[in-house]
Amino acid sequence: PRITYTVHADSRIARIDPRLYGSFVEHLGRAVYTGIYEPGHPEADEQGFRQDVLELVKDIGVTTVRYPGGNFVSGFNWRDGIGPKESRPVRLDYAWISKETNQFGIDEFANWSQKAGVTPMIAVNLGTGTPQEAGYFLEYCNHPSGTALSDLRAAHGRAAPYDFKLWCLGNEMDGPWQTGQLSAEDYMKKARETAKIMRWIDPEISLVACGSSHSAMPTFPEWDRIVLEGLYEHIDYISCHQYYENEGNPKDFLASFLNMDNFIETITSTINYAKAKTRSDREVMISFDEWNVWYLKTDPWDAVFKDKAKRFQPAPPLLEDHYSFLDALVIGGLLCTLVNHADRVKMASLAQLVNVIAPIFTQPGGDVIRQTIFWPFQMVATYGQGYALRSFSRCPTFETRYGDARLVQSALVYNEERQQIVLFALNCDFSQQVTLALDLQGFGVTRPRTQVLLQHQDLNARNTFDQPDNVSPRTLSLQAEPGNHHDVVLPPLSWNMLLID
Ligand code: AHR
């Protein structure tokens, strides 16, 4: 097929918030221990942080990292993870039926974030935790000095406040799997009282309320409406979480972006409704702070519950999905959706970053590799900066469980500083190449220079420690004439990035 693809320089959706390219490190499996932190590893620095992992964290271009959970946070006492390491308590982690040694806590995370060059996004415990404990946690982190907790931080080696500005009011509190699950009303009240305390301590923080855990929750979107109406004046963001997996029909799986589109649009409408109902001038935005491919149904992590020998191990290998080429294509499609909603989605977190459903994968004591999904994320995080633009095309569609999906899922970004137009495009056609006939209006003379392509003949191809570059991008230099009309060829089933200047 040949598709005319028109875009005008003035058709701006919004400036992309760099925090759209965030990720997530939870105390879960080997995300922390033998992931980002492994004292004794040949690559560990003096603080025990793996430098080989840090390098890839910088390379992938993540901007924020959410911590310490996830489900873990809802049973976590932040005080267990501070002070001299030898006196920290070993605890049972109810969320993942693991043993938490607390050798890594908030002070270590602050140091690691600084080395990684990422902005921390911290979650408080609204499961077993109280509003006041959330306040104490914030006081420990952000209050300058002269109180028991701020002086305790100084005694632990950090005199200046951490000044963390992004805080999540709990995690997935609608889920029966959550320690201390709440009804929407009860969560709303608890989060409201927590938000009041937290803002009294530091009025400059931004707060994220828990939205539905996913769009198939029986309480969706009523949960979101109740939370938004009750918290509208207290929060800055509502969270969305959604994971996708191949349930046997690759076409449906490829169209995951359509489900994410609908989810964002429903939550946007719910926010607008709550804004009108509360007569507010405030703009609450979306934090899509958990999204990824996760083989939850086919590789049940909860086997640890049933197997006595596997219960309560420290840093057990959990949720270690080995991603395929097809998974990487799906991630590309989802990234386009996030960029295309840059007006309402201001933050997002690929869940997660290392080992646990992650683009970066380590061997304890050994190597680190980039999984297939590393690549689309890295391309969009690195080049998807500037304004998201709206494009117009009469694109053929294909039938999926989510409805009719565009054959080519795409996003277009204009970077003013680099004077560069960047097209991201996923060709969902299994057998045919698609030619995009670009009609670029209002940009002056343009010339496509480079096409970066992720393509593999085997949908199941994976990167392994023996073949770490099996699925990796290819860069083509283009010999295009300067002008406003350019034909771009997207091979069958491929993820593409086109740089035009
Ligand atoms: O990212 C894995 C888990 O998925 C998180 O702990 C939880 O928030 C979600 O259910």
Fraction in helix: 25-40%
Q: Which architecture of the largest domain per CATH?
A: Alpha-Beta Barrel
Q: What distance separates the N and C termini? A: 26 Å
Number of helix segments?
Answer: 11
Organism: Biostraticola tofi
Pfam families: Alpha-L-AF_C, ASD1_dom
Subunit structure: Homohexamer; trimer of dimers.
Protein name: non-reducing end alpha-L-arabinofuranosidase
Characterise this structure.
The protein is an alpha/beta fold and 501 residues long. Helix content is 25%, strand content 27%. The protein is built from 11 helices and 24 strands. The chain has helices at residues 51-60, 106-116, 131-142, 148-155, 184-201, 222-231, 250-254, 256-277, 303-306, 325-340, 374-383, and strands spanning 2-15, 22-24, 64-67, 91-93, 98-100, 119-124, 166-169, 206-209, 237-244, 285-293, 313-314, 345-350, 360-362, 368-370, 387-393, 397-400, 403-406, 408-415, 420-427, 434-441, 448-454, 474-477, 485-490, 494-500. The strands form 5 sheets. A 9-stranded mixed β-sheet has the order 22-21-24-19-18-15-1-20-23, with helices on one face. Strands 2-3-6-7-8-9-10-12 form an 8-stranded parallel barrel, surrounded by 5 helices. The chain has a 3-stranded mixed β-sheet with strand order 4-5-11, with no helix packed on it. The model has no long low-confidence stretch (mean pLDDT 97). Bound molecules: alpha-L-arabinofuranose. Alpha-L-arabinofuranose binds next to loops. Residues 26, 69-71, 171-172, 290, 351-352 line the site of alpha-L-arabinofuranose (AHR). GO terms for molecular function: alpha-L-arabinofuranosidase activity. Its EC number is 3.2.1.55. It is an enzyme of class 3 (hydrolase).
